[in-house]
């Protein structure tokens, strides 16, 4: 499964900036969002029909579903500059993450209950419940995608062409924007900082269960901790939206980074499942906030008329995250033989990301982006 995730991440990382350029040029954000969302929805539901032992088919369907989900998110993120002004982008971005955590938590809780108590739902066993869960996810995804297609308006693209003309113009624009990205020092510095600290965030999220198992905690207890993180993330993300409006997105992100650094230190000394629950709650308090404020801050320092393209680079960085962290944990674990020192080493990514982010000048970045819009 790790290989499947890597394949999907590489494909999405390579496609996102190019597809973003085409979407901006042709005014096709919603069209491409619909295309990739439907791809993800259909493939997720199709996992229900994969039989036991068909691991090759399962990987193919899973990778395709992941590509659909991740690519759709690129165009979803880029619409932030359309539905929110610079003044309220922190709150709108946070609201999106908050509702996502609430909805994801409700569905996850339902699927867990289905798996643990399949007879309540008239299902044969836990394996049958897992297969049905894929269908519920697909239906949930489809239903809650409807509002964005009905009510969100998209500005016209820069090109009046159609079909392959737009694709060719988009590819040309991609090369031009790549050069602009190197010139926009604020954006470039932010992306490096983001890559460092979001790598740490993803590493903690993905390795938390493995770390808990290495300390001897039961799997069911760790699933409960994941549910805690989901539900705490709902009100916490909303709170971070208010924090971003009051003290600034960058300050809010740095606060979140500081909390994650403390989580790494605390994890080193952790001994009981109660402490793991407290840590899960703590992570839930800042996880959505650090993600939502990163998105809103980035939306203000990029040209609005090239949002999909620049968010393509943003999501490309996100897909290549959680690479250094797991490697760092692996090497430190091998060299020291201690999972505690391994998890402690992740704080290096947070410290480095925080230092780099502190050097990001949001005002200068916003002015440079607006100047580029006028050219």
Written description of the protein model:
By secondary structure, the chain is an all-alpha fold. It has one domain (2-374): Growth Hormone, Chain: A, CATH 1.20.1250. It contains 17 helices and no strands. The chain has helices spanning 2-26, 29-46, 55-78, 80-83, 89-116, 126-143, 146-151, 164-183, 185-214, 219-247, 249-269, 273-300, 307-319, 324-336, 339-344, 347-358, 362-374. The longest helix is centred in the middle third of the chain and has 30 residues, at 185-214. It is globular and about 60 Å long. The termini are far apart.
What is the CATH architecture descriptor? Answer: Up-down Bundle
Describe the global form: globular
In N-to-C order, the SSE pattern is: HHHHHHHHHHHHHHHHH
Helix content: over 70%
CATH class: Mainly Alpha
CATH T-level fold name: Growth Hormone, Chain: A
Strand segment count: 0
Main sheet attributes: strand count, strand direction, barrel closure: none
Poorly predicted ranges = none
Radius of gyration: 21 Å
Structural class: mainly alpha
Number of helices: 17
How many domains? Answer: 1
């Amino acid at each position: 499964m790790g290989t499947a995730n890597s394949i999907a991440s590489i494909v999405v990382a390579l496609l996102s900036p190019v597809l973003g350029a085409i979407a901006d040029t042709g005014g096709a954000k919603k069209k491409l969002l619909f295309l990739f969302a439907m791809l993800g929805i259909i493939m997720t539901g199709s996992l229900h029909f994969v039989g036991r032992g068909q691991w090759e088919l399962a990987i193919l369907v899973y990778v395709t579903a992941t590509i659909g989900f991740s690519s759709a998110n690129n165009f979803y993120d880029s619409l932030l500059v359309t539905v929110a002004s610079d003044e309220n982008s922190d709150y709108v971005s946070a609201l999106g993450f908050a509702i996502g955590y609430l909805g994801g938590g409700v569905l996850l809780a339902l699927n867990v209950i289905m798996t643990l108590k399949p007879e309540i739902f008239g299902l044969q066993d836990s394996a049958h419940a897992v297969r049905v869960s894929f269908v519920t996810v697909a239906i949930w995804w489809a239903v809650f995608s409807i509002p964005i297609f009905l009510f969100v308006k998209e500005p016209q693209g820069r090109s009046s062409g159609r079909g392959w003309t737009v694709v060719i113009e988009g590819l040309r624009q991609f090369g031009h924007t790549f050069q602009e990205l190197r010139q926009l020092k604020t954006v470039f510095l932010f992306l490096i900082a983001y890559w460092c600290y979001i790598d740490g965030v993803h590493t903690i999220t993905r390795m938390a269960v493995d770390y808990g198992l290495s300390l001897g905690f039961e799997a069911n207890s760790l699933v409960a901790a994941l549910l805690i993180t989901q539900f705490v993330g709902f009100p916490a993300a909303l709170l971070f939206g208010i924090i971003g409006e009051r003290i600034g997105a960058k300050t809010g992100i740095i606060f979140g980074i500081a909390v994650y650094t403390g989580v790494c230190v605390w994890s080193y000394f952790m001994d009981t499942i109660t402490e793991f629950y407290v840590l899960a709650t703590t992570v839930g308090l800042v996880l959505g906030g650090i993600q939502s404020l990163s998105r809103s801050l980035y939306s203000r320092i990029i040209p609005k008329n090239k949002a999909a393209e620049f968010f393509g680079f943003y999501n490309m960085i996100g897909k290549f995250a959680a690479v250094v962290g797991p490697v760092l944990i692996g090497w430190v674990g091998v060299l020291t033989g201690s999972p505690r020192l391994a998890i402690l080493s992740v704080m290096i990514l947070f410290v480095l990301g925080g230092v780099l982010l502190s050097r990001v000048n949001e005002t200068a970045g916003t002015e440079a982006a607006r100047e580029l819009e006028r050219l």
